[in-house]
């Protein structure tokens, strides 16, 4: 799951208190000069960015002036394995910056998912902090969103076990990513966690009564499993059965919907336009990491795979690399597809590659500068993650308590 985690939020009953957006404490605001006027601007930032993430079904209108309106809730996360790359950023994190103004958002580092395949034990905690710092450097605002580490909210693991008891093994055996990764690793090297991590992913989402899950095309199957599990638990334990046990009755879980961005949801490899940009790819040349130096970015773009067709164009099935590079350029310059197509139509690769390189360097420089500031004050990051986990746990514990009650457990 370098995979971004998958959610739209309606009312949660009085037995499941709504998570309220919280403002960063004055202490945190003083550290690193976090007042709004001192935020380092990011190209295509929230104030000017056109949200390129849309929902297939019409969204209810939420009045920004109404004091009683309730924002829909979204949760998402990224694994702390390998370096955060352009695919993670354009496919997920950059989109979060747009979503945090419109929705109630929880963004976490999914460290529990990171151990489903062999990993560097010495690097896990370090990578977790670095990933959190990149969230903030990319523009996630802790006065609008909760940022925390998955393993710091223990309800994730508890709910996973409860859901596992109700998950048919056949549902997990059909997961495409499990089949692909287990085939590569070999049966002797595959742990049970690789099979059951979609249940943990479902727990991540259902704990927070999420309405929407930002999800790429390759993760729709996992979200569908989450939806099926929510409906199964609601059927088995909800409604009158739950009410007879002293609960409120009705649905235990909200059934989340996918939020799929039409652009940037699937950024492809620089060495193969038919493969997704991935942390697990053998060659570092296949991806632009957010912390790559100017020289590294220039070298990777210079050497990336292209074709011999004249001109540049979108959506030609015979030119996957061309479509990928133009799409990256479109998103990081915050322009329309039509504008980019017109600008680049008569360019050759020798002309376009330096233009793309400069655009990438200009876009990533503020992120890299902000990242260095955050990492230089570890105490600040620790406080952000502690606050985020505390706020997230308020929702998660309430949901978990309801599930325990509905499934017939003795009250603690």
UniProtKB/TrEMBL annotation:
Superkingdom assignment: Eukaryota
Subcellular location: Mitochondrion
Catalytic activity: tRNA(Trp) + L-tryptophan + ATP = L-tryptophyl-tRNA(Trp) + AMP + diphosphate + H(+)
Xref: Gene3D superfamilies: HUPs (3.40.50.620), Tyrosyl-Transfer RNA Synthetase (1.10.240.10)
EC number: 6.1.1.2
Keywords assigned by UniProt, alphabetized: Aminoacyl-tRNA synthetase, ATP-binding, Ligase, Nucleotide-binding, Protein biosynthesis
GO molecular function: ATP binding; tryptophan-tRNA ligase activity
GO BP terms, alphabetized: post-embryonic development; reproductive structure development; tryptophanyl-tRNA aminoacylation
InterPro entries tied to this protein: aa-tRNA-synth_I_CS, aa-tRNA-synth_Ic, Rossmann-like_a/b/a_fold, Trp-tRNA-ligase, Trp-tRNA-ligase_bac-type, Trp-tRNA_synthetase
Gene Ontology CC annotations of this record: chloroplast; mitochondrion
Record keyword Iron-sulfur present: no
Listed PROSITE patterns: AA_TRNA_LIGASE_I
Leading EC class: ligase
Alphabetized PANTHER family for the sequence: TRYPTOPHAN--TRNA LIGASE, MITOCHONDRIAL
Sequence similarity: Belongs to the class-I aminoacyl-tRNA synthetase family.
HAMAP family: Trp_tRNA_synth_B
UniProt protein name: tryptophan--tRNA ligase
């Amino acid at each position: 799951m370098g995979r971004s985690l998958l959610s739209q939020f309606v009312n949660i009953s009085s037995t499941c208190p709504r998570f309220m957006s919280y403002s960063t404490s004055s202490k945190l605001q003083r550290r690193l000069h976090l007042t709004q006027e001192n935020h380092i601007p990011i190209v295509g930032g929230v104030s000017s960015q056109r949200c390129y993430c849309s929902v297939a079904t019409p969204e209810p209108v939420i009045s920004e002036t109404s004091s009683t309106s309730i924002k829909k809730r979204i949760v998402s996360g990224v694994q702390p394995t390998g370096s955060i790359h352009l695919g993670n950023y354009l496919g997920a994190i950059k989109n979060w910056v747009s979503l945090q103004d419109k929705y109630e958002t929880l963004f976490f580092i999914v460290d529990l998912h990171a151990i489903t395949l062999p990993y560097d034990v010495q690097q896990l905690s370090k990578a977790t902090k670095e990933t959190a710092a990149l969230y903030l450097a990319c523009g996630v605002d802790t006065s609008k969103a909760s940022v925390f580490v998955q393993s710091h909210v223990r309800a994730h693991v508890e709910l996973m076990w409860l859901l596992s008891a109700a998950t048919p093994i056949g549902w997990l055996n059909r997961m495409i990513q499990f089949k692909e990764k287990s085939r590569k690793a070999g049966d002797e090297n595959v742990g049970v966690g690789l099979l059951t991590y979609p249940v943990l992913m479902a727990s991540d989402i259902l704990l927070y009564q999420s309405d929407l899950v930002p999800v790429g095309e390759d993760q729709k199957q996992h979200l569908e499993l989450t939806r099926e599990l929510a409906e199964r638990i609601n059927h088995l334990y909800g409604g009158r059965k739950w009410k007879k046990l002293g609960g409120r009755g009705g649905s235990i879980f909200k059934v989340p919907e996918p939020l799929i961005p039409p652009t940037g949801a699937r950024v492809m490899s620089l060495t193969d336009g038919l493969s997704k940009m991935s942390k697990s790819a053998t060659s570092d040349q296949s991806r632009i990491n957010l912390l790559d130096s100017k020289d590294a970015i220039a070298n990777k773009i210079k050497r990336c795979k292209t074709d011999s067709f004249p001109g540049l164009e979108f959506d030609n099935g015979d030119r996957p690399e061309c479509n990928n590079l133009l799409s990256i350029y479109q998103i990081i310059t915050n322009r329309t597809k039509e504008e980019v197509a017109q600008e680049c139509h008569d360019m050759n690769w020798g002309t376009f590659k330096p233009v793309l390189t400069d655009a990438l360097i200009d876009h990533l420089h503020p992120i890299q500068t902000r990242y260095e500031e955050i990492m230089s004050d570890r105490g600040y990051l620790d406080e952000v993650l502690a606050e985020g986990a505390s706020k997230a746990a308020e929702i998660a514990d309430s949901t978990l308590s309801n599930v325990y009650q509905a499934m017939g457990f003795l009250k603690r």
